[in-house]
């Protein structure tokens, strides 16, 4: 594969992967405006975010078997068309319940892109390159939280929050065109895969029983849900507690994303020397220490805008290390069932994200504590799951063959 084709392929896969995050981040600065226009509260508006996570969780379980049975592109076309129609529906809704419903449908459409992109990494690249490719995808994905809330803040201030969803509709159309004309077919349809409920459930169960999968998939999902705690809690924290406006919030969100993006790229360099298992272990220990310190400071009322930004930046850096390595290790044992494994891994992530976002939305009083408690709890549980699960993996399937240097000497 030439460098030009490699770059272009990463760009398209990154666009598919970023569709969901862009849909999450771009409308966040509009929470107060949506609440005002739809005559509701910011906490109720946050349920539209929870609804998005629910849609992604359910949709990924649907698309996994479809991608394995019919190939990657046809189910992807259906998902993108559904996304485009639902995005337009969000722009014209007149009630908070209508917005929540459209967001669920929008998510079901967008998750086809997420599942397909992860499965196609496993299809198109050698296993030993998967962690590197996932890190590169995070670079593209990472641009969304830098660009999306900043654009969303300015668009909301100038034209209203509805325009955000008009823009998302256009992005969906652009990605659909790119997939149709330039994304190669990476996987032949497998007619032996049944779409009846029982075989599908048995297929998912076979994936879930693999110790390497459930150890790293659950570790990743629980650790990554700390990011959902941040995303769900940050609009209330920054705009209601620290009283920033939509534009400033967008810039803060963009700055914090630099930590997530930067660490994912440092991870690419570390993979030349260290194993994914080593990096995850150290990153999660750091994530727990940072989160518990953050919680202690918040409980004692010592938080300021600047210290909050510092803690969030460091926390997101840790996730940039754990997520790509855990994804690569989760999928490494699979070839035939890569689509189902990808879907199950994504569903676990979004399921955990849904739970934590609902937890955040339950608190009507503006405070940093719900968000920080969610971050500390998820990081601690993820580390315990990792340490417990690794004992059950007999012979790990490595994602790189020559990384033997211990991370701690």
Automatic annotation (TrEMBL):
Keywords: Cell membrane, Membrane, Transmembrane, Transmembrane helix, Transport. InterPro entries: Efflux_drug-R_Bcr/CmlA, MFS, MFS_dom, MFS_trans_sf. It is a multi-pass membrane protein. It holds the Pfam family MFS_1. SUPFAM superfamilies: MFS general substrate transporter (SSF103473). Signal peptide: none annotated. The chain crosses the membrane at residues 45-64, 76-94, 100-121, 133-155, 161-183, 213-231, 251-270, 282-303, 309-331, 343-362, 368-387. The keyword Iron-sulfur does not apply. Belongs to the major facilitator superfamily. Bcr/CmlA family. This is DHA1 family bicyclomycin/chloramphenicol resistance-like MFS transporter. It comes from Spirosoma utsteinense.
